[in-house]
Specification:
This protein has about 180 residues and is of the alpha+beta class. Helices cover about 20% and strands about 35% of the residues. A hairpin with a 2-residue loop joins β3 (about 55-70) and β4. α1 packs antiparallel against α2 (about 25-35). About 35% of the residues are buried. Bound molecules: coenzyme A.
Length: about 180
């Protein structure tokens, strides 16, 4: 049985291991730890997927900032990182995590999610090219990999601005 739930104290090492295995390195592990220890962490939006009691997947949404000259800075969400154990990829776990996380984020009242990731994967969850929607980012990212999704009706109308990732992401890379 696959169960999705928010992370709990004691899950840290299992989450790190899934990320290590999925990404083949420590960068995402460091980013997760840095976010968890920061003001940008949202405990309800760090979700694990458990299969028969073992953590096989993880997704984290955290606070980032949207800056525009004509209005105060806004807090929006970043989806990053997400990982599913390579042994059990392509079985819908990643999709279930994205959908559950976006649903919870919507419930919590968040408006916009930004992801930098696989252009073939995220559009199925409603993500669109962010630059086409008026967002920009001070980072060299291909147009098709820089994506945004709205969580509330009309959330992507009259939006846009400069996306600023939070300092914990400086710990490593974004993908
Ligand atoms: C991306 C990832 C989280 C997806 O998890 P998953 O449980 O395998 O996903 P699902 O089973 O819900 O969906 C599988 C789909 O993801 C696609 N996918 C998986 N890895 C992909 C990749 N590197 N690039 C593009 N698409 C990818 C598969 O092709 C499949 O597409 P299809 O449904 O059209 O056949 C997982 O493959 C993973 O951990 N990859 C390594 C880490 C990573 O790249 N994280 C995301 C950073 S943006």
């Amino acid at each position: 049985m696959l169960e999705l739930r928010p992370e709990r104290p004691g899950d840290e090492e299992a989450i790190a291991e899934v990320n290590r295995r999925a990404f083949g390195g420590e960068e995402e592990v460091g980013i997760i730890a840095a976010i968890r220890g920061s003001e940008y962490f949202i405990p309800e939006l760090s979700l694990v997927a458990e299969l028969d009691g073992r953590i096989i997947g993880h997704i984290m949404f955290s606070i980032i900032t949207l800056v525009r000259l004509d209005r105060p800075a806004e807090k929006i969400l970043s989806l990053a990182p997400m990982a599913v154990d390579p042994e059990v990829q392509n079985r819908g776990t990643g999709s279930a995590l994205v959908q559950a996380g976006m649903e919870k984020a919507r419930e919590l009242g968040h408006t916009v999610v930004i992801v930098i990731g696989h252009p073939e994967y995220y559009p199925r969850f409603g993500f669109k090219q962010a630059r086409m929607l008026g967002f920009d980012i001070e980072m060299e990212v291909p147009d098709e990999a820089f994506m945004a999704a709205g969580l509330q009706p009309d959330a992507l109308q009259d939006v846009g601005g400069m996306v600023q990732f939070s300092p914990p992401f400086d710990t490593g890379t974004l993908d």
